[in-house]
Design brief:
Elements lengths: L7 H11 L4 E8 L2 E6 H17 L7 E5 L4 H12 L3 E5 L5 H11 L3 E4 L5 H4 L9 E3 L9 E2 H7 L14 E6 L9 E5 H14 L7 E4 L6 H14 L2 E4 L6 H8 L3 E4 L1 H14 L2 H8 L2 H15 L6 E4 L6 H8 L6 E4 L9 E2 L12 E2 L4 E4 L4 E5 L6 E2 L3 H6 L1 E2 L2 E10 L5 E6 L4 E2 L5 E2 L1 H9 L4 E7 L6 E7 L9 H13 L8 E6 L19 H8 L3 H6 L4 E3 L2
Parallel strand pairs: 1-11, 3-4, 3-5, 4-8, 5-6, 6-7, 10-11, 12-13, 13-14, 26-27, 27-28
Antiparallel strand pairs: 1-2, 8-9, 9-19, 14-15, 15-16, 17-18, 18-21, 20-21, 21-22, 23-24, 25-26
Length: 548
């Protein structure tokens, strides 16, 4: 262990002492109303819940699960679990009953906190009747013991209960983009190390305003927003619901903002639906008008005050980054995994290089294998996969975590990810196809909303797409798509060329099971959903096929 960075609970108690009256959490509660919690109020509630948890007599390190969308009490619950000497298990709030059941049983959770949820009635069958449960303030109506009732009758835990750096802090279950979820184990040292190294890379981040909406079960939101705010004593605003996202973001005007590529694509679509590209380009070409337009767009997006704007979780196209840069919005792409606490590479303010995920954080070693697999090593790496010793051993080589991603590193140490090794497939001609680079080329076009290149074992590769809404008046959609297919193929090697472009009517989403909770495409699910049609589509003479 190579850092003396304070542990997360030490930071909590420090904020409680030094800025007791500063607002820590701001929770929308409907009808334009918000509930603010100061550091003193927040930590007091966590202390009371921690005392209650301790009274249950659970063994040290017991697993306690949280099933909830992002909200203030998600944070307070996690802090209480840590204070009480236990380990958190966060479950994605959109998971099916089967997955909820799997995580609860696999993690051996002793208790479940149920919070803000959209489809609790569908998830209930996955929760064992015998499992103790506590309802958070924004939870659906249940007969469970309620948070407010518990803290009103419980005295707060006194003193500053701390945890050993080697204690297990959390089991983070992967989002399932590559199949069955795995439980990634991180101790308190890894958490502290990751946040400390991140802040070392971005020393300008002090007391900021964060906006929390990506699932807190995901490593990027956990480390950047939750732990980043705790370690800097910052303020966090939450989104109320999907319908109020834009209004909440505009109200918050965060100074630090993280979005996955799909969010940036949706923001671009929203802008172009109101101001077509030709008009926007013309206005941006007029010096005085350009400044006014940029300022207005940033304000309407909720990014007027944003100083640090990040993207991660999946690749973002260079064209999209360049498009936002013309509006004065520099999106810094970062790279990390659940398995290394999201600590690997990042572009820095003023030193960004579009098309790369930046350079390593201080304290992170990187190397490429003979197959150009990216391998990283740092104190932020996982202890292993819960109950999976063989899989854990296979994930490391000489202490380096094998990421499964293929990449290249330039002379200045900037890493470019060229694809996911496991996503590679062979056509029947025996040639390997790496889908991600091809998909990124297609996604640069404003017509394409989502793309998934397929064709394993088939005579050729082809692509499934959904269309974006851009506001452009397309005179001949078929002709434009045909031109895009030809332009894309002209940049590909012969064996990579796409024989078809299949336009899917239904957008891929979390509810229909084709996107992960962090909006990455679920390749296996997409293949399963459309696979029975592949042979028929390949036999058609048409290059552009619209799925009815």
């Amino acid at each position: 262990m190579t850092t003396t960075a304070p542990m997360v609970l030490q930071r909590i108690y420090q904020n409680e002492r030094e800025q007791a009256n500063r607002i820590f959490l701001t929770q929308p509660i409907g009808q334009g109303q918000v509930h603010n919690l100061t550091w003193a109020e927040a930590v007091d509630q966590s202390r009371r819940m921690a005392a209650h948890l301790k009274s249950l007599g659970l063994p040290h390190g017991a697993k306690v699960a949280i099933l909830s969308k992002n909200c203030a009490h998600f944070f307070l619950t996690e802090l209480a679990i840590w204070m009480a000497g236990y380990t958190t298990v966060a479950i994605f709030p959109t998971e099916s009953a089967d997955t909820v059941k799997f995580v609860l049983e696999h993690s051996e959770s002793s208790l479940l906190f149920v919070g803000k949820l959209d489809e609790w009635h569908k998830q209930t069958p996955g929760v064992p009747d015998h499992l103790p449960k506590i309802a958070l303030p924004l939870a659906p109506a249940t007969a469970f013991d309620k948070w407010d009732d518990i803290i009103s009758r419980t005295q707060p835990m006194a003193g500053e209960a701390l945890r050993e750096p080697t204690d297990l802090a959390m089991i983070m279950y992967t989002s399932g983009s590559t199949g069955q979820q795995k439980g990634v184990m991180h101790n308190f040292h890894a958490v502290a190390y990751a946040v400390d190294r991140f802040l070392h890379n971005f020393p300008q981040i002090q007391k900021e305003i964060f906006f929390s909406y990506l699932p807190l079960c995901h490593v990027a939101e956990k480390m950047l927003v939750e732990c980043g705010a705790i370690f800097t004593g910052s303020t966090i605003y939450f989104v109320e619901n999907l319908d109020t996202f834009n209004a909440n973001l505009v109200y918050t005007q965060p100074t630090v903002f993280l979005a996955v590529p799909r969010i940036w694509e949706k923001m671009q679509e929203g802008i172009l639906s109101k101001m077509p590209q030709k008009k926007l380009s013309k206005l941006l070409s007029i010096p005085i008008v350009s400044s006014i337009i940029k300022k207005a767009i940033r304000k309407k997006l909720g990014l007027a005050n944003a100083k640090f704007i990040f993207t991660g979780a999946s690749p973002i196209s260079v064209a999209l980054q360049e498009w936002f840069a013309k509006l004065g919005i520099i999106i810094l792409e970062a790279y990390g995994m659940t398995e290394n606490s999201a600590l690997s590479h990042a572009n820095r303010v003023g030193l960004h290089k579009f098309g790369t995920v930046g350079q390593t954080y201080p304290g992170v070693e990187v190397r490429l294998s003979a197959q150009n697999e990216i391998q990283v090593k740092s104190d932020a790496s996982m202890l292993g996969y819960f109950k999976e010793p063989v899989l854990t051993a296979e994930s490391f080589e000489d202490g380096f975590l094998k990421t499964g991603d293929e990449g290249s590193i330039d002379e200045n140490g900037y890493l470019t990810i060229t694809g996911r090794i496991k996503d590679q497939f062979k056509t029947s001609k025996g040639k390997y196809i790496m889908p991600a680079p091809i998909e990124n080329k297609l996604l640069e076009h404003p017509l394409i909303g989502q793309a998934c290149v397929v064709g394993s074992g088939m005579s050729s590769a082809f692509v499934l797409c959904t269309l974006a809404t851009t506001g452009e008046q397309e005179q001949d959609l078929h002709q434009n798509l045909q031109a895009l297919l030809e332009a894309t193929n002209s940049k590909l090697d012969h064996h990579e060329k796409l024989s078809k472009m299949v336009i899917c009517k239904e957008e891929w989403s979390i509810p229909n099971g084709l996107l992960t909770p962090t909006l990455k495409i679920k390749r296996k699910s997409i293949e399963s959903y459309y696979g029975n049609n592949y042979d028929e589509w390949l036999k058609e003479e048409k290059k552009i096929i619209f799925v009815v």
